[in-house]
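Q: what sequence does this backbone want?
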């Protein structure tokens, strides 16, 4: 059983930055990968970024490439999402996800699998 707790959301003006954190507890394996997803009102949850626990390779949605950075600190069991140059369309509830790594494409083809946190709200004003 894996537990995830997100924090760091808030209200920011367009062009600003936020850093989200996700603390992971419970049974995790080196074969795990961590991801961030988001869900805006009236829209389906969408993939944002992912990182492999082992090796630290990363993968991003095209909409956030060059603006968002995912990173992990295994000593603190924490995954971060640094969000820069925020846009109003980034407004959403952001969720942390943990799953067994089966390829980065699975984050988009199988978005619902794994363990989830409760989400943290990010609001970007124009």
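A:
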């Amino acid at each position: 059983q894996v537990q995830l707790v997100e924090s760091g959301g808030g209200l920011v003006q367009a062009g600003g930055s936020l850093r989200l954190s996700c603390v992971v507890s419970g049974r995790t394996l080196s074969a795990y990968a961590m991801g961030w997803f988001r869900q805006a009102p009236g829209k389906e949850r969408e993939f944002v970024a992912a990182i492999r626990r082992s090796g630290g390779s990363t993968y991003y949605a095209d909409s956030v490439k060059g603006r968002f950075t995912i990173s992990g600190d295994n000593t603190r069991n924490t995954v971060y999402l640094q969000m820069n140059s925020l846009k109003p369309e980034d407004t959403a509830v952001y969720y942390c996800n943990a799953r067994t790594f089966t390829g980065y494409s699975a984050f988009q083809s199988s978005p619902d699998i794994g363990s989830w946190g409760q989400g943290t709200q990010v609001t970007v004003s124009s």
